[in-house]
Amino acid sequence: MSTKGKGKRSQEREPATKSTDVQIGDQLLLDADSEVDPVISVVMPTMNEEAGIVECIDRIKPGLREAGVTGEVIVSDDSTDRTPELSRENDAIVVEPDGEGYGYAYRYAFEQTRGEYIVKQSRTGEVASTDRFVREL
Length: 137
Known about the structure:
Elements: E1 2-3, E2 40-46, H1 53-67, E3 71-77, H2 83-89, E4 93-95, H3 102-110, E5 117-120, H4 128-136
Parallel strand pairs: 2-3, 2-5, 3-4
Antiparallel strand pairs: 1-5
Helix pairs in contact: 1-4
């Protein structure tokens, strides 16, 4: 988990601190075109994770709802299966790294984030770190 300064991409936007500050109703996972910056960016590198990606994304949503904050899920994907399609269908933003390796997938995704806080999600089955971070927020 880390914080980051706002980059050039998001300087014109105000971060949303609580979901009630945002005129988006119950939509807590924001898409890439949102006019509002999310509070939390969850970054997940994936490779052929279609069996677990939907469950992982779904398990992030209650934590955001409980904390009352907006978020985005950035899936940094290099799959040959349906992981990117399933991720998009479940409100994640999918980026495709232009280099190889697990560490590079993270670094590439970090450059795409807009949240005030970044939560690293190491595997699609491990969501405890995201849950704990959101609860403590």
